[in-house]
Predict the 3D structure of the following.
Amino acid sequence: MTEQMPDPADAPRIVTSVWPAVVLLAVAVAMMIWARTYGETAARFPSVVAMAMAVLALIDLWSRTRLPGHVAIAAFWGTGFRRREMMHNPGFRDQLAMLLWIAGGFALMAVFGVLTAAPIFCTLYIWLRGRHPPLVAALVGLGVFAFQFAVFEWLLDYELYRGLLFTKGGLAAW
């Protein structure tokens, strides 16, 4: 017996409309404006992230419209709710679980810092949510740590946030 795929027309209109792309574009613009309040060096990374987010949001927005070329954009970038990967509507419980994972990730970063929290978060997520073996999860976490350390701490000489536990002054310095 084959499992029947859900109808993409069942996806809520708020999800399939242009509004998600518009909201992401607005967040990207806000990030670009906010990054300008930092010093030159500190503004580089959030500015690059904001620009990348803006480009991807514009591509998403274009693919959701009826503008010329939207079909080619959707085919090339893999957008659209009729694709096999997008034919699901997660329930409220699953969405709440994702929000809790995100909140947990931010809490880890606040307490332990980015360099420590990201590998821990990735390891736990791959193991518990992704249901992969602990060794695979640990290797992913180790890879995340190695990437962060090599790129930010070593190559860019950019000290990542150390967290409340490892920052001099702890909460008072935050």
